């Protein structure tokens, strides 16, 4: 039996928590969602800085961040979601996905479920 992937997200961010709940209800999240604030980051092979910077998909010792974590989430969910996930792994869509992810991450406090706390760095929350 293989270990279930882990989806690390910012538990202090309303937009992030809302997005994870959406993935659980609508997409069929096939990973264990864990707020990074309650995770053993070292055991998962990542750092606080990286976890605070982007959502992380951790599977079999490999860490995928940002848009690539979202792509892995979609691929793991199977059809029809995987049809959106696979193209996100290949240039030039991979580059566009990275840009869109950074844009969303920078403005998550303005999006549905977001709060002013979403825009603060971890050490100021």
From TrEMBL:
InterPro entries the UniProt entry points to: DCC1-like
Domain of life: Bacteria
GO molecular function terms attached to this record: protein-disulfide reductase activity
Protein name listed in UniProt: DUF393 domain-containing protein
